[in-house]
Amino acid sequence: MIRLTLYTTLGCHLCQQLEGLLARLCREPVALERVEISEDDALMARYGVRIPVLADGEGHELDRGFEPERLAAWLEARGWRDDDAWQQLQLSGEGMDSEARAAVTRNGRRYLG
Fold it and tell me: Which pTM does this prediction carry?
């Protein structure tokens, strides 16, 4: 079982997108610990403009994991990627051109373009 931490906040649609991709692209089941950043000033300062942030057990972090290419590469580097699922996702184009790509950050807040 793969154990990961997801730094998130309530209502984060990008975090939900990341979770869906993660479930689809991992070759093993994932135990996901969700850390709510809005209740901790230090976590807000560190992750507020970066969520969703995915971290492995060694503390290696992935920003923008809702982008399929970034998540697939991160999983592959750890030997966790389901290559068949990744190939199917690429062929279908599903999630590859998400509205999240149009997100912009202004004054520490993320807006959809």
Answer: 0.79
